[in-house]
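Dear colleague,

As promised, here are the two records you asked about, laid out in our usual form so they can be pasted straight into your sheet.

NAME FIELD: protein one
SEQUENCE, THEN STRUCTURE:
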Amino acid sequence: MPPPSLPAARDPAAAVPTTTTTSARRRSKEGATAAKVHPAPTEKGAMGAAGGEDGWRLPEWCSAAGVAGILRRHPLPALFACGLLLFMAVEYTIPMVKPDAPPLDMGFVVTQGMHDAVAARPWLNSLLAALNTVFVAMQAGYILWAILFEQRPRAAVAGLMMFTCRGMLGCATQLPLPDEFLGSGMDFPVGNVSFFLFFSGHVAGAVIAAADMRREGRVALARLYDALNVLQVVRLLACRGHYTIDLAVGVGAGVLFDTIAGWYFDAKNADGKNAHCRSCQCHKALLSH
């Protein structure tokens, strides 16, 4: 038998044959493989098998306790769900307006008393129209101030998008002017000229301006514009200058195009330190792109 090597002589543990260690490692590896191939059944796996071959079962929120939890934690979506069911029933059962009948507008019904008062006083109609035109000029003035003096073009771009879309929709579907429309030479557009009904640019422009004010921290001014916008809505309904749907979509259009304008400038600034910045301060470099 040959003499042990020098390392083995110095370390007796190193003289142990490697075959024993190799065999132990092989057995350990085989045991791990067997454990992976035949895992022990767990509680979750047992429940999944009970639910079906693929382990699917109803979500927890489908139970009575789950529904109660949703109603408690998310009352607003639950209310919208009830509204869906309600208006599905209303839509499928409400009688349609006849082709030869005027549109049925609930906003006109609510403001009928104010309409009669304004119709009986032409001077009041002209005064309200003039005040509304001043408010439109205030919207335009603020948006122009933002782009020309503060170099913040987001509101201006949103306004351009909004009025372009409004013109396209107005040409695509021309709604009839209400029979009780109270026109005035003091109204905007000044001169009692024709205009698109769907959707309201008056309302959308005010929403865009107020959104820009909030981004700049001018909360009090934004609230003032919101209040004037509500008064504008009432006046337009009372004078039959817009249908209710024109005004409601005007609010949504203002929010939509303000958001799209923000996306546009975020994409333009995405190559620098202003990426994903929602503040209009990062949009000052209008001409740099």
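NAME FIELD: protein two
SEQUENCE, THEN STRUCTURE:
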Amino acid sequence: MEEKISCDGGHEFKLLLSCPSGLSPSQVSVVFDEAYDRIPHSDSSLEHSISEIWDARVQQSSSLYNGTKFRYGGYNFDVGNDPKQQPHVSLQLGLTDYRTFVGTNLSPIWERYLVPSEDDCIQCQHTSSPLGNGAVVETSDKKILVLQRSNKVGEFPGYFVFPGGHPEPQEVGIISHEGFQELNQCRTINNKVSQEMFDSIVREVVEEIGAPADSLSSPIFIGISRRVMNVRPTAFFFIKCNLQSDEIQQLYSSAQDGFESTQLYAVSMSDLENMASKMPGCHRGGFALYKLMVQGQKKTFHVNELTCRYAS
């Protein structure tokens, strides 16, 4: 399941999970539990640095606020024994916040939080690791939508990215782990968080691109990539848009979150290949997941084509 690709600096990524056939909402579930929260580091000075880094950042930018985020804690992948059974992924999510993310993953000394281990979750057990999301959006004229980040954003200013952000705990009424101990409450909140995984990526596309929600297909989950620098994980989805690229260019000018980006590009696969050299590692990993999906579709089409020829 895991694949590591070496590039320079922030371009390096690791594919934690690849689902090239794409998974629908019914094939993705969530286990939300404090067992997947960050484990504080035993080095007290390292822990204290989280507050110091956050306070310094707030002084530099008064617009920063400390919101809650879902923490990535791993997954279970079940392909099933029955060939007719659909594969299923269960994502394991805890709770973290932006302050801890800035003080661990984005800290100048972020590597000190890592534990030497081949197990990704053990390696990152002391980092905040909020789960981001990204969408590979394909227009009706077969172009892929890519944003160029503003020079005012905190991470990778000027870089190319897919539209995305984070699933939000507050959208499903989560502030802490309190009140979700009983079994029926756990099931209810797990279902709500699972739905938020898919709802949130549609919101992000609508807000950042400007395309109306009813122009977008239901997202399919294609995997999780992780930027090696800062060990930042991102879940990626594939979405089709029934609008042409020139129509979306017009809508982009009035997008709700347009301040985060300076330009929208609608590009071919070959153009995207060239642009990937200036993508953060997590989004470059998203492109790799998309390519695996496309390759899988071509193989399926070829098999079906051969079957049709044989049958005729």
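A couple of things worth noting about protein two: Residues 52 and 103 are 8 Å apart (CA to CA). The longest strand covers residues 13-23.

Best,
R.
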